[in-house]
Automatic annotation (TrEMBL), chain A:
This is ATP-binding cassette domain-containing protein. SMART domains: AAA. It comes from the Bacteria. The keyword Secreted does not apply. The lineage of its organism: Bacteria, Pseudomonadati, Pseudomonadota, Alphaproteobacteria, Hyphomicrobiales. CDD domains: ABC_NrtD_SsuB_transporters.
TrEMBL record, chain B:
It is a multi-pass membrane protein. Pfam families: BPD_transp_1. PROSITE patterns: ABC_TM1. Belongs to the binding-protein-dependent transport system permease family. Keywords: Cell membrane, Membrane, Transmembrane, Transmembrane helix, Transport. This is ABC transporter permease subunit. Residues 56-236 form the ABC transmembrane type-1 domain.
Length: 286, 250
């Protein structure tokens, strides 16, 4: 896919401006009177730089999705603070944050066009502006020919495109994605990854991607936060050093193998712990 | 018409023709069966004379009242119980076994409590229909994908707008199933109640004709009832198809 590169002078002048920050964030579930709770996350400290593509990778059940929930404001942390663009995030999703879920969140009773414009209508944007933004998103996500279709008539990959387009029209400055390609086949994932990179470059948004796929994280990210088994903490942050102009063919780069093997080096033990720890954790609660 | 549709029509035509021949040829006693052509002719004369109008209006009124109340109450109860998981867990066995109850056995109680007349009949129709709607509402709300209300929160939609614009349309197919069931159950409940404890209405008129050996009228009224139910269900089915057409994969 050939795309005209979009250079962003702002990023060049302030390469390390902090866009969102989690400090000492923990999340505990179901703790009634301090007993029987599950310590799901943290403490976690992450500083997202404005305009970067940051992935969080970790073993299953490590609290990756919980991390996204608290960062987006969908749920409150048990302790710690979250700041987005200088303002604290506390129990509500701030303006400027978009979220794409793993599950298909498209509305089956609306056309693709209406799906994409729904959030804008709900937020009182005027019709002409909605039309412009929806048209742009349809074009960007390759959905122009499907504008009048209903989501059940589309493949899983196309439905996830609808959900991404629906997030993009809100012009988020921080896009959070919770394993958005988890339900898709391997080839579609690669294609969608490239499209996500293109969207990231063209919008200039900060992206945080939650994933369990090593190659996905290595391929897409500027930085990768590696999480431990539950309760998830950040074990290490790896800089990939990829150029901004990149796509899935970066997998052929000699440095790619180094990144994935480093990730696996950190994750292997944690994944084993995550698998092995499940039975004793259940026994503890009983 | 599709092949299946042709076969279906052929079965109905053949069954009616067989009944006609059996009744006319003396295979069935005159006291048992009346040829369908004569039943249709009788129904036509009843309708022209307007003899069944009052009973028909009463029955349809009872069904509409029972069904309407059941839809409102069933949906409201379903919505409330869905929001109270503990109450729901406590109620689940009752809901699951509700239709195992032979309601009609309690008709004397209904008469004692509600008196003779419209009330106990509507009550039976209502009792028959309400839980179907409630269970359908619970099912519908259960099957709203979690990501949908979460998406609404990302857009900072309030609880009322989320309920009206996202939860309700998402649950709509299940709610429609509930409506269809409630209509069918309300008909069954009202007609059956009219058989045993009414002094008017279509159910009563059928029972009255039966008790007076008036087979022709009895069959004609049955045909009338059948026709009404077929039309009502046809309309509902058509509406459901329109609702679902877009939600199905091509």
């Amino acid at each position: 896919m050939t795309v005209r590169p979009l250079t962003r002078p702002a990023a060049a002048t302030a390469p390390h401006e902090i866009h969102a920050r989690l400090a000492g964030v923990t999340r505990t579930y179901g703790a009634v009177g301090g007993r029987g709770g599950v310590h799901a996350l943290g403490p976690v400290d992450i500083a997202l730089r404005r305009g970067e593509f940051y992935s969080v990778i970790g073993p299953s059940g490590c609290g990756k999705s919980t991390l996204l929930d608290v960062l987006s404001g969908l749920s409150r942390p048990s302790a710690g603070t979250i700041v987005f663009e200088g303002r604290p995030v506390d129990g509500a999703v701030p303006d400027g944050v978009g979220v794409v879920f793993q599950e298909d969140a498209s509305f089956p009773w609306m056309t693709v066009r209406d799906n994409i414009g729904f959030g804008l209508r709900e937020n009182g944007v005027d019709a002409a502006e909605i039309g412009r933004r929806v048209d742009a998103a349809l074009a960007l996500m390759g959905l122009r020919d499907f504008a009048a279709a209903y989501p059940p008539q589309l493949s899983g990959g196309m439905r996830q495109r609808v959900c991404i387009a629906r997030t993009l029209v809100m012009q988020p400055r921080l896009i959070l994605l919770d394993e958005p390609f988890g339900a898709l086949d391997a080839q579609t994932r690669l294609i969608m990854g490239d499209e996500l990179l293109r969207v990231w470059r063209e919008t200039g948004a900060t992206v945080m991607l939650i994933t369990h796929a090593l190659d996905e994280a290595a391929m897409l990210s500027d930085r990768i936060g590696v999480m431990s088994a539950r309760p998830g903490r950040i074990l290490a942050e790896i800089e990939t050093g990829w150029p901004r102009e990149r796509d899935s063919r970066i997998a052929a780069d000699p440095g790619f193998g180094a990144v994935t093997s480093r990730l696996w080096g950190l994750l292997r033990e944690e994944s084993l712990r995550a698998i092995g720890a499940q039975a004793p954790a259940g026994a503890d609660r009983a | 018409m599709s092949r299946a549709g042709l076969v279906r029509t052929a079965i109905v035509v053949a069954a009616v023709a067989a009944l006609e021949l059996a009744a006319r040829g003396g295979l069935l006693r005159a006291g048992v069966a009346v040829p369908p052509s004569e039943v249709a002719a009788k129904l036509w004369s009843i309708l022209r004379a307007g003899d069944a109008n009052a009973d028909l209006a009463e029955t349809l009124g009872n069904v509409a009242l029972a069904c309407g109340l059941a839809l409102v109450a069933g949906f409201s109860l379903g919505a409330v119980v869905h929001g109270l998981p503990r109450l729901r867990r406590a109620l689940d066995p009752f809901l699951a076994s509700y239709y195992a109850l032979p309601f009609f056995a309690f008709y004397p109680v209904l008469i004692v409590v509600l008196g003779i007349g419209r009330l106990p009949i509507v009550a039976i129709g209502f009792m028959f229909a309400v839980v179907a709607m409630m269970v359908a509402t619970l099912n519908g709300f259960d099957r709203i994908p979690r990501a949908l209300p979460r998406t609404a929160r990302v857009w900072r939609m309030g609880p009322v707008r989320t309920a009206l614009k996202i939860k309700l349309p998402s649950a709509a197919p299940h709610l429609f199933t509930g409506i269809k069931l409630a209509v069918a159950y309300a008909f069954i409940g009202v007609i059956a109640a009219e058989f045993i404890m009414a002094t008017s209405g279509l159910g009563y008129a059928i029972a009255y004709a039966f008790n007076n050996y008036d087979n022709r009228t009895m069959y004609a009224l049955m045909l009338l009832l059948l026709g009404i139910v077929v039309v009502v269900n046809g309309v509902l089915h058509g509406a459901e198809q329109r609702l679902l057409a877009r939600r199905r994969a091509r």
